Please model this.
Amino acid sequence: MIPPAFDYHAPRSVGEAVGLLGRHGAEAKILAGGHSLLPMMKLRFAQPAHLVDINRIPELRGICIDAGAGGDTVVIGAMTTEADLIASELLRRRVPLLAEAPRQIADPQVRNRGTIGGDLAHGDPANDHPALALALDAVFTLEGPRGRREVAAGQFFHGPYATALADDELLVAIRVPVPPPGTGWAYEKLKRKTGDWATAGAAVVLHLAGGRVDHARIALTNVAPTALRATAAEQALAGQPLTEAAIEAAAAAAMAATDPAADLRGDAAYKTAMAGQMVKRALRAAAARCQ
Model:
């Protein structure tokens, strides 16, 4: 199908983009990689009167260390592509989860155009970056007519396709604390075929001290109305040796927190069970990376 008519805008700066959003509000939609918005427009599920293409704003791209934060925070521009994340030597050294996990997102064509900011701002519970952001305690920088504000990942996702972004705001950057040395990480994802969304996925960030868990983050993909941080599973591990019994207990707690919707990838019981399996795999893989 052909989308209805719209006005096209190509701002050259964040300020110009925010000005357009301020003028047009809910009638405007941001175009980043376009993999979600354009199909919805063709099906007329989305009918924006104004399309604001932010691909020509260079300040929205790139990966760097925030020197003002003592060098312990990585800042990623919202228009940074999945391929850029994978290729980043900085991420491989400082936040390797964000360099490795995107390899499981879609296919090379999508990864060359799809952006981390678009993935997050869309608010799709099946997208991968929301769970990664929760596991990494990421903070999002939003800019609107009233200035900039920061929203923690745990406060950003409100429901399916619903986020803390106001109609006149733009996701500008993602700030990720650099995990301490010896931190293990993993993203395990079950999908039917290359390019598919997850049946279930689990992101884990883990740190051990004296053979016991002193930091654990576990976040799940596509098994609830939003990406889900499994806090009960984290609490089950806190202060414990990472034995098989502890891993089983964490997986059981994670499964109890899920609320999946049945779809072509499986019914609720199957998706819940697969969430537990992904948690176990991710915990084992993360533990093997703890050094």
